[in-house]
Amino acid sequence: MSSARKIGIVILSFGLVVTVAATTACRKKVEKAAAVETQKAANEFEGTVKTAVGKYLYLPTAQGFDIVLQGYDASSLIGKDIRVKGELLADKPSIFRADTVEVKTAGAYSTVYTRSQEVTFEDFVDVKARDAYAPLTITGTNKIDEWEGKGKAKVYGKLQETTVKEGGAEKPITYILLADEKGKDVGKIIVEKMTDYAKYYLKKLRLFDKFWFYVTVKDTVDKNVRFRTKELFHADVAFAGLF
C-alpha cells in the first residue's frame, strides 16, 4: 500500500471519528434540552384561566390536571393570564399542587399566591374511590326500594337550578333530572349539598349537559309530595363527571 493511500485512510478514519463524536454530542444536547423542557412542563404552566371553583382551577395548557391553590379563592383568577409553578402529586396523578401563582399584567408578572399550608383533600374523589358508588336504576316514583338504603350511589342525569315558592318567598333549589332509556322523565333528586370539587367539574365540562352524579342517598320525599312533584329523595353530591 502506498504512503499516500495510508495517509488518506488515516484522514478518512479521523473524519469519521470526529463526525460520530459531533453527532453524539449534538444528540446529548438535544436530549438534555428535552429533559429540561419536560421538567419545566411538569412543574410550570402558563395560560388563561377558564374555570375555577373554590381552590380548584382549570388551565387549558395543563390538560389532564386539576390545579389546587390551597387556602385561596381560585375563582378570582378566571379570565386572567397566569403562570403557575408547583408539583404533580405522585399519589394523586390528576392533581397539580400550586406553590406560586403569578398574574400577567401589561406584559409583567406579579405574584398573587404563595402556598403557606399543606393541601387537603376533604372533597376530592379519585377514580378508585368512585368504585364505592353503585349505579342506580330508577324506574318510577313508587319504586322506593330502588334507592332507599343504598348509601353511596351514582345516577345519570341533568342538573337543573330553579326556584320554588316557600312561605310566600322564592327559594333556590337544585335538582338532578332523571330519564329512562327512551328519554321519558322518571323523577328528580333534590340536591342538598354539593362539594366544590363537583361544582368545579360541572363548570369544567360545561359543553356537556348530562353527567354521572356521585351521591349519598338521604331521606325519601313524602309519598303525596313525591307523586305530585316527582321529587324522589334528597342527596348530597360528591362528584360529577362523564363516567
Task: Describe the overall structure.
Strands 1, 2, 3, 4, 5, 6 and 7 form a 7-stranded mixed beta sheet that branches. A 5-stranded mixed barrel has the order 9-10-11-13-12. 24% of the residues are buried. 23% of the residues lie in helices and 42% in strands. The chain folds into 2 domains: 72 residues, Nucleic acid-binding proteins (OB fold (Dihydrolipoamide Acetyltransferase, E2P), Beta Barrel); 113 residues, OB fold (Dihydrolipoamide Acetyltransferase, E2P) (Beta Barrel). It is built from 3 helices and 13 strands.
Largest sheet: 7 strands, mixed
The DSSP helix count reads: 3
Mass-distribution shape: elongated
Strand content: 35-45%
Overall mean pLDDT stands at 87
Strand/helix succession: HEEEEEEEEEEEHEHE
Distance between the termini: 76 Å
In short:
With 243 residues, the protein is α+β, with helices and mostly antiparallel strands. The chain has three helices and 13 strands, in the order αβββββββββββαβαβ. The radius of gyration is 28 Å and the shape is elongated.
Tags for this entry?
243 residues, alpha+beta, OB fold (Dihydrolipoamide Acetyltransferase, E2P), 13 strands
Write the layout of secondary structure elements.
Layout: H1 3-43, E1 44-48, E2 51-53, E3 56-58, E4 66-68, E5 81-89, E6 92-105, E7 108-114, E8 134-135, E9 152-166, E10 169-179, E11 185-194, H2 196-204, E12 211-220, H3 223-229, E13 231-241
Parallel strand pairs: 4-6, 8-9, 11-13
Antiparallel strand pairs: 1-5, 2-3, 3-4, 5-6, 6-7, 9-10, 9-12, 10-11, 12-13
